[in-house]
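By way of example, we now present a protein record of this kind:
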Amino acid sequence: MYSMGGLAEYCVVPANALAVLPNSLPYTESAILGCAVFTAYGALRHAAEMRAGDSVAVIGVGGVGSSCLQIARAFGASEVIAVDVLDDKLQNAKTLGATHTVNAAKEDAVERIKEITGGRGVDVAVEALGKALTFSQCTQSVRDGGKAVMIGLAATNVVGEVDITRLVRRQVKIIGSYGARARQDLPQIVKLAESGAFNLENAISRKCKFEEANSAYEDLNQGK
């Protein structure tokens, strides 16, 4: 996908990767439907096979993680727990569907998730950062037989550790998820936005001019 152009005025895209944008949706904001929201949808619909009533934790609530919060809410999650280290991101998470927030810099994220779920752990945990620590937190915060879904890309050679005996005995499932299926999923994602089940306005905190790309990437690097 990256070979088709970025920060470009035009690019060539396969026809089956396109979905028609209805007039009711804003042109600029809808750009995230094909990326952040696409990844969140694939993680919860396909990798986690999430069902209504499931409890969900999202570790790392940046662009993709916060999209997971809205998708989890749209799919009928009973509890949506947002985990991050920045209070302003956690505050924002509440407007996107989080029922609980955990600041992992101030408390033990795994313990707190278990506390919220009555000691069980969540049905589905999503790791949206790509760090060894959050990978570990994700695998530890799911219930017996639960699904830990990894969507955060890590730096080269980053390795995550797993408690093997717990993985085996508790039948924990660790699943990697990368995007979704354009032809069948993108039209569904557009419908979620059109119906208001996914709120595009709330998902976007800031818009940058084309000329601000370098400083925007710098801010992205620093977690801003």
User: Anything to note?
Assistant: The chain has one domain: 28-222. Strands lie at 55-59, 79-84, 100-103, 122-127, 142-150, 173-176. Residues 28-222 form a domain with the Rossmann fold fold (CATH 3.40.50.720).
